Every structure is written in C-alpha cells, then in structure tokens.
Amino acid sequence: MESGRLSSTQQALIRESWQKVSSNLLQHGIVLFTRLFDLDPDLLPLFQYNCKQFSSPQECLSSPEFLDHIRKVMLVIDAAVTQLENLSSLEEYLTNLGKKHQAVGVKVDSFSAVGESLLFMLEKCLGTAFSPDIREAWTRLYGAVVKAMSRGWDLQGER
C-alpha cells in the first residue's frame, strides 16, 4: 500500500472531510450501509447474528449487533485516515480482514458497491463541499484499502 499514490493535497482533503464525518461515525455509517443495501440487496443474508436472518435492511440496520459492525467498519476507515502517510502499516491487518470477509461469503466484487456507498455517504455528509477532488482522493484511498483486503482471498477462490 503505497501512500505515494495520495498527494499531500489529497491527504489533506481526506483528513478535512473525514473530520466532519468522524463527529458522528455511527450516524454516517448507517447512511453508508443503507445505501449499500439499496445498491446490493443480496448482501443482506450475509449478516446473521445468533443464527437470525434479517427480513429487511431496516431490521438489520436497527439490530445492536449490526450497529456494532457499522462502528467497526467506520473505525477501519478512521484508521486508514489516521495512517495516510503510512498505509503499509495497515496492510497485514487489512489482508486478515479480507480473509474474514471471504470466510463469511463476501465476494471481492462486492467492494465496488461498498466504495460507491462510501462516496454517497461522504457526499450526503459534506453537501456542496464534496468536490471532484475530494471524490478522487477518497476513491484512491479506498482503492488501496480494497487492494490490501483482496489479498486475503484465496487465489483459487471466487472473486
């Protein structure tokens, strides 16, 4: 994960925009996952807690276990923002996170919908401040995170 892919200007844009999001990670995480389930409803069955299958995205989004998952996802994004100058320090963690996602049936292809949902959430949070430059910076950061996570999938596994 080369942080050289992000210019110092892009790093600043990411930090400034994340500062607004980080004031309420759970609320913004709910926006992200609501959008994700709109884009890819087939992901809903992957989220089961205590062998309980959710009948709707709303039921899932209101469960305490899923809200905990949202917090964890937002903290991973927060860690990436914190480590912008040294993203390689997160590589092993992200690769292992990829393995965990593969183990529960997530396909690498699903991460494109997650990326779209992340950009959607940022746009909703930032409003008119969400510029093409901010979009590009976040797209590059997310791409680096997904690249590291995708190393966790078996080479023979379905992508």
From TrEMBL:
Gene3D superfamilies: Globins (1.10.490.10)
GO terms, biological process: cellular response to hypoxia
Key words of the record: Cytoplasm, Heme, Iron, Metal-binding, Mitochondrion, Oxidoreductase, Oxygen transport, Transport
Keyword Secreted: no
Any GO molecular function: GDP-dissociation inhibitor activity
Reactions catalysed according to its record: Fe(III)-heme b-[protein] + nitric oxide + H2O = Fe(II)-heme b-[protein] + nitrite + 2 H(+)
Cellular component GO terms, alphabetical: cytosol; mitochondrial matrix
Domain Globin positions: 5-154
UniProt-listed InterPro entries: Globin (IPR000971), Globin-like_OT (IPR050532), Globin-like_sf (IPR009050), Globin/Proto (IPR012292)
Main subcellular localisation: cytoplasm
Places the protein is found: Cytoplasm, Cytosol; Mitochondrion matrix
Tree of life domain: Eukaryota
Function recorded in the entry: Monomeric globin with a bis-histidyl six-coordinate heme-iron atom through which it can bind dioxygen, carbon monoxide and nitric oxide. Could help transport oxygen and increase its availability to the metabolically active neuronal tissues, though its low quantity in tissues as well as its high affinity for dioxygen, which may limit its oxygen-releasing ability, argue against it. The ferrous/deoxygenated form exhibits a nitrite reductase activity and it could produce nitric oxide which in turn inhibits cellular respiration in response to hypoxia.
Family: Belongs to the globin family.
Name by which UniProt lists this protein: Neuroglobin
Native source species: Chelonoidis abingdonii
Gene this protein is translated from: NGB
